[in-house]
Amino acid sequence: MPAIVLIGAQWGDEGKGKATDLLADRIDYVVKFNGGNNAGHTVVVGDEKYALHLLPSGILTPGVTPVIANGVVIDLEVLFAELDALSARGIDVSRLKVSANAHVITLYHRTLDKVTERFLGKRQIGTTGRGIGPTYADKINRVGIRIQDIFDEGILRQKVESALEVKNHLLVKIYNRRAIHADEVVNELLSYADRLRPLVADTALELHRALDSGKTVLFEGGQATMLDVDHGTYPFVTSSNATAGGASTGSGIGPNRVDRVIAVVKAYTTRVGSGPFPTELFDESGEFLRKTGFEFGTTTGRPRRCGWYDAPIARYTARINGVTDFVLTKLDVLTGLAEIPVCVAYDVDGTRFDEMPVNQSDFHHAKPIYEMFPGWTEDITGVRSFDDLPKNAQAYVRALEAMSGARFSAIGVGPARDAIVVLHDLV
Fold this sequence. Notes:
Number of domains: 3
CATH architecture of the largest domain: 3-Layer(aba) Sandwich
CATH topology of the largest domain: Adenylosuccinate Synthetase, Chain A, domain 1
Strand order of the largest sheet: 9-7-5-2-10-1-11-15-19-20
Number of helices: 13
Shape: globular
């Protein structure tokens, strides 16, 4: 049975939660392998809407075991707030497993994230201020706090005190903020120990055993390819590997276990935060996409920057991740447009680039070269067969597929859970 990796193909917010939910009734485990509560999935189930930030969206499907793996950084306050909110709405959250090796976001990580971003001024990266970057930095610097440390007060206190020796100098002497006392951090983390203990497991071992026994495992990436710390628009990226390779390091599952890589791509493009965005729109077309697509961050509420579909980015994503299938979302948002531009290449100071430039400066100055496609006016939210889509919508989808480097296996035509056209089986 397969191990499937599901990732975002653009700068996030492509609708990965919906794609996960589409698959979830045929899988046994859903694994979050990177990121933290700096991104969100909005999943619509019937008349209910769920905004998830830290939890895998598979937690909404009965019988599926959701896993927060070692590559995730965890804010325990957020974790238990989300679990309580779902429980209050009748969702069974008892199946959740949390890796003992996942790193913990502390008070000083959140504080440093916020003050550092303010200090950067015009050079701000656009972080969510939730402590994600500083926590990953501590992980790489080998001074991080892991979930398992919370169950040994001596080790926990030693690690917190050691970290604060340096960080308090930064807070007080550089950022003119108050020092943080170790007791404040230690006591907060220890307060979660009893509730956390039953959730913690050797998740890598459990996932290996699940695959060996014929279970189907879905690895759900946070953020997206263009925000990957290695392969995204650095430095305007997240602090983890949001690409398919991150599923292996972020979960402890070997890459030879992965059978399929599904990338979710929006029928246009959005991003939140700073950084280059060649097809970004600053006119009424951008406002149309934002309002019609309700393009506001699930986690932050920030309005998303909006632009047309970027085929070179889709091809780049296909290469970097080894994409086998694309899921195209939000096709319905384009309904009513007379013409729909698609970026097919870039112009950089008079030179044409058919692929994404490797040089960040070139990409920052890239101007989109557009091909125009006729739009449609028919409501497509009730369509469930490709042949029932308007002819112009069919032509638009097929054109994008030909440009994007992998087949389109499903098309989202509305916000409802079942508002999707399936072209190829994803499991």
